[in-house]
Design goal:
By secondary structure, this protein is of the alpha+beta class. The protein has 16 helices and 14 strands.
Length: 537
């Protein structure tokens, strides 16, 4: 629907290419890493470079402390003063930066709640300017995050959601409000009542992706569909001679997901006698539903097409130092071939999408999420690491211990990337992912990724033993075909420098003007200019 001006907010950590202006202020240079000479590409891009060889200055303990302090210092009453910073074009950059900082810090401050309460009260106004709509839109996302983090302290946001459902003419804001209340634990009977109210207020709700998918989600929560046989999905081939990467999650996305891979021969890749696997985190920092920009990673089918280069320190914090795996959802421009044999992006019907799935999965609604996410305008999903430390995001204290070291995104698939206090790489799963995809799929690898939630009691990720039992019969058949080529990885697999596609790195701060905001003399001597950081993780 709307984004920060000119559709600047995207569904993931990446945004459309644009020229980045130089930052004059020294503090901003430190914050964005522009004052540091970028690492040579010949070193930063090689996957087998020893961790002790290349230091990343932005990952040192002092740089991380400074980065966090700069964010926390922005959470002060004068920055949230709507009289000083009214919702107008000259203050748009201020609110964009401040709302992202609020998402990072997750403060429990009365002045933050009061400011968000005033901003979200604008959802019922029919005459908002483009700037006001953009700021309110971002506030809806961050407001959802804070409301879900503490519904008691941020109860006023819940009240604004109720008013939005009752009075707003904007279907996306109504859907976000309804979804936020549902995720916040509102009783099913009240949700059904409000759902019926929304249907009455919007007679054409079935033609609006946000309303249609949100109302369907509420119905499915009451009577969930049973998961079809997982083996049917794992043994299905969307297209021959293509990679098939599976990411198996729990509905609670604070629990790590498990990625496994089938090579172009249809055989599961193994390493040291076990299924090759990598843990990934598919959690949105905002806690939004999959059908909204900046929300959770949708379930369903993605097209994999090579990598996007990342060798610029300017975006180290958002992505880490390694290339990103390039993913496409249906309807997203740029895909070379989404449907086998049909060049270009997916432009078909739901039936065309369902035909890519095994018969037992075609009527299972959750696996259709990427189709509807693409219809709603989501795009630019990636698999990537993170240059931020695990404790940069305040909401991480709610994560389970085994997922704490992975950072959230705004829709992407997050891989582990850890650094020492001296800025040396300690561990990263991106080299393993890139090396394996190239070994199994060639230098310019392509194929399909499927994300699926596997419900279960408890807080543990799906085990490789459980996955292996699902595909055991297929493995037995594979062993009866000695002529079939299989990919077996060992620790000594030689590393290769990943190939980039022709797509250039898409910069994360498309919605951020990195030129520092000029403003009158600060109210206090200790006040700092609000500093931009990449609003895309």
């Amino acid at each position: 629907m709307r984004r920060f001006l000119h559709s600047h907010i995207t569904s993931r950590i990446l945004a459309r290419p644009r020229t980045v202006k130089a930052i004059a202020a020294a503090s901003a240079l430190i914050l964005l890493g522009l004052a540091i000479k970028p690492a040579p590409r010949s070193n930063a891009g090689i996957l087998d470079t020893p961790a002790t060889v290349q230091k990343q200055p932005q990952a040192t303990s002092s740089a991380r402390v400074l980065q966090r302090q700069q964010q926390v210092r922005q959470i002060r009453p004068d920055n949230f003063d709507l009289e000083r910073f009214p919702l107008q074009k000259t203050n748009e950059s201020h609110w964009r930066h401040l709302l992202w900082t609020t998402a990072v810090v997750e403060p429990q401050e009365a002045f933050v709640a009061a400011a968000l309460n005033k901003i979200l009260a604008q959802t019922v106004r029919p005459d908002l300017s483009d700037t006001e709509k953009a700021i309110v839109d971002m506030a809806m996302k961050v407001g959802t995050q804070l409301y879900l983090s503490d519904p008691n302290f941020y109860g006023s946001i819940g009240q604004r959601f109720l008013e939005t459902i009752d009075q707003s003419t904007d279907p996306e804001w109504v859907a976000v409000s309804l979804s936020g209340l549902a995720k916040g634990g509102m009783v099913a009977t009240e949700l059904q009542r409000m759902g019926n109210q929304v249907k009455s207020r919007f007679p054409g709700w079935t033609t609006n992706v946000f309303l249609q998918t949100t109302l369907q989600e509420i119905d499915d929560a009451t009577t969930p569909q049973p998961l079809p046989p997982l083996r049917d999905l794992l043994t299905w081939t969307i297209a021959p001679q293509q990679l098939h990467l599976y990411v198996l999650c729990r509905p609670n996305r604070r629990i790590l997901c498990q990625a496994i891979l089938k090579d172009r021969s249809g055989e599961f890749v193994k390493q040291n006698g076990q299924l090759w696997s990598v843990p990934l985190l598919l959690e949105s920092i905002h806690g939004l539903g999959w059908n909204f920009t900046r929300g959770q990673t949708p379930q369903g089918i993605y097209r994999i097409e090579g990598t996007v280069s990342q060798h610029n320190d300017e975006f180290f914090r958002a992505y880490g130092q390694f290339p990103l795996v390039n993913l496409f959802v249906p309807f997203e421009p740029g895909a070379r071939q989404f449907i086998p044999g049909r060049p270009g992006a997916f432009k078909g019907s739901l039936e065309d999408y369902q035909a890519l799935l095994p018969p037992s999965w075609r009527s299972y609604r959750p696996i259709q999420q990427t189709y509807w996410a693409g219809r709603s305008g989501r795009s630019l999903f990636r698999i990537h690491g993170s240059g931020e430390s695990p404790d940069f995001f305040s909401g991480k204290d709610k994560n389970y211990p085994n997922s704490y070291e992975w950072n959230p995104t705004i829709g992407c698939l997050s891989a582990l990337e850890l650094y020492s206090d001296r800025g040396q790489l300690l561990k990263s799963d991106m080299p393993k992912i890139l090396r394996t995809l190239q070994t199994a799929g060639g230098r310019n690898f392509s194929g399909y990724l499927m994300v699926v939630d596997v419900p279960a009691d408890g807080k543990d990720p799906i085990s490789l033993e459980a996955v292996q039992s699902e595909i055991a019969s297929r493995q037995a058949r594979s062993r009866d075909r000695p002529d079939q080529k299989r990919i077996i990885l060992a620790k000594s697999t030689p590393a290769k420098k990943p190939a980039s596609t022709t797509r250039k790195l898409i910069k994360p701060n498309q919605l951020v003007k990195v030129t520092p905001r000029s403003q009158p003399q600060p109210i206090r001597q200790t006040a700092e200019t609000l500093q931009p950081i990449p609003i895309a993780y």
